[in-house]
């Protein structure tokens, strides 16, 4: 039984469907090389260290321009950013709905672009940024003044409080030294949000400061781009060597940077889960449809229990997970999401794992043709496999749930 959305959310989903058919599908059909079996090659600038091609970014920018003009792109953003302050439930419903349509320009996996934009850094800047820093809000949305996110390091991922990048006060500014890994979208960014320790000792939550560093600042350098499971890649290794910034480069307050990172990541977790649930639903539905129509040994594949039972298991879990995601998203609209972080973590690690299992099963059901790039399942698998690591690995999500389940640090499981 599907979650019963309020009428305004149901109406929004129908509105988005109509917009996709009228505005986005025709644009997609004009550039099918980015969506059929040629997609990875067409999107990737192999001679430029595997970064996305300009033509691919230009197409996404046109999609987003049309979505913004129609009033969809900023739907989830605060009203101060030109948005409509949509609820967590509305955004989760949209992410799941769009991902369940399969690959397309309306909701691209690799670039994480969508007709309803996912801009987790924008609410952070809106809440904590100065008037000058808020100039990046419109720049991020319009892709002409981008701000990338530099938290992860070569020796530190989920253990962010142990990061080794340091900033030392010098005069009326700061000098930053360190390395950042998987510094997403820094190649096209005008500035980089760099997290560095300014006080305290390794492991302390306080003492980490976020700096907005223009990417053309001397000493800020892209060392190389990581070629990943899903190409193109925009996850660079960045070197910061004696990078000098003024005190005004600090976003929020000195020593309070981890609050920004947590808000960025936490907001993304439920949305990531919703997208994974939608993509899983797509893989399961396509596999069932194929099994009904595929004749093997004189009868449909769907007659075989070896085909039925794995898909039934996935279908059952998908129905439970996606409806649970909507329940948790609705609760996030009624109370501080940090109070139910264990539930958000459950959504995240279960949905991401489910999607990988559903994509893998879809490949198996479709046989040899499922393994080709003529079908979308390999692309879905490669992308969502990353989600089991980013925004906190699934082990970190499970650790968060364990903190509540076993009462570690005074926390108890959410009822």
Explain the overall architecture.
The protein is built from twelve helices and 14 strands. It has 415 residues and is an alpha+beta fold. The strands form five sheets. A four-stranded mixed β-sheet has the order 5-8-9-12. A four-stranded antiparallel β-sheet has the order 6-7-11-10, with no helix packed on it. Helix 4 (88-99) runs parallel beside helix 7 (257-293), helix 7 runs antiparallel to helix 8 (305-332) and helix 7 (257-293) packs antiparallel against helix 11. The relative contact order is 0.11.
Give a short overview.
This protein is α+β, with helices and mostly antiparallel strands and 415 residues long. It has twelve helices and 14 strands. Helix 4 packs parallel to helix 7, helix 4 runs antiparallel to helix 8 and helix 9 packs antiparallel against helix 11.
Secondary structure: elements and pairs:
Elements: H1 7-29, H2 39-43, E1 44-45, E2 51-52, H3 54-69, H4 88-99, E3 107-108, E4 113-114, H5 121-128, H6 135-142, E5 147-150, E6 166-170, E7 173-184, E8 191-197, E9 208-214, E10 220-225, E11 235-246, E12 250-251, H7 257-293, E13 295-296, E14 299-300, H8 305-332, H9 341-366, H10 368-371, H11 377-387, H12 394-405
Parallel strand pairs: 5-8
Antiparallel strand pairs: 1-2, 3-4, 6-7, 7-11, 8-9, 9-12, 10-11, 13-14
């Amino acid at each position: 039984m599907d979650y019963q959305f309020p009428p305004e959310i149901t109406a929004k989903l129908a509105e988005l469907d109509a917009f996709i058919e009228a505005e986005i599908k025709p644009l997609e059909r004009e550039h099918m090389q980015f969506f059929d079996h040629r997609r990875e090659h067409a999107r990737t600038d192999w001679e430029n260290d595997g970064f996305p091609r300009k033509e691919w970014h230009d197409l996404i920018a046109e999609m987003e321009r049309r979505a913004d003009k129609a009033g969809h792109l900023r739907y989830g953003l605060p009203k101060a950013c030109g948005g409509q302050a949509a609820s967590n439930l509305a955004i989760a419903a949209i992410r799941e709905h769009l991902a369940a349509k399969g690959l397309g320009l309306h909701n691209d996996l690799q670039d994480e672009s969508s007709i309803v934009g996912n801009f987790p850094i924008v609410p952070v800047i809106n809440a904590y940024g100065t008037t000058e820093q808020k100039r990046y809000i419109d720049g991020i949305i319009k892709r002409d003044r981008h701000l990338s996110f530099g938290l992860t390091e070569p020796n530190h991922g989920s253990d962010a409080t142990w990061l080794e990048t340091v900033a030392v006060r010098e005069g009326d500014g700061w000098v930053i030294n360190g390395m950042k890994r998987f510094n997403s979208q820094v190649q096209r960014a005008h500035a980089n949000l760099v997290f560095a320790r300014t006080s305290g000792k390794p492991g302390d939550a306080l003492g980490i400061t976020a700096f907005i560093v223009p990417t053309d600042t001397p000493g800020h350098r892209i060392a190389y781009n990581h070629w990943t499971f899903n190409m193109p890649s925009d996850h660079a290794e960045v070197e910061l060597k004696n990078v000098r910034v003024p005190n005004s480069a600090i976003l929020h307050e000195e020593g309070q940077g981890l609050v920004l990172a947590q808000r960025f990541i936490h907001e993304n977790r439920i949305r990531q889960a919703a997208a994974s649930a939608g993509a899983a639903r797509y893989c399961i539905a396509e596999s069932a449809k194929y099994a009904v129509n595929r004749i093997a040994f004189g009868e449909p594949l769907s007659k075989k229990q070896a085909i039925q039972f794995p898909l039934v298991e996935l279908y059952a879990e998908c129905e439970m997970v996606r409806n649970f995601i909507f329940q948790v998203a609705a609760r996030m609209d009624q109370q501080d999401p940090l109070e139910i972080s264990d539930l958000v973590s459950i959504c995240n690690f279960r949905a991401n794992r489910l999607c990988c299992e559903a994509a893998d099963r879809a490949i198996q059901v479709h046989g040899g043709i499922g393994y080709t790039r003529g079908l979308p399942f390999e692309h879905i698998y490669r992308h969502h496999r990353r989600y089991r690591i980013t925004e906190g690995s699934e082990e970190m999500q499970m650790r968060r749930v364990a903190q509540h389940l076993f009462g570690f640090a005074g926390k108890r499981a959410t009822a």
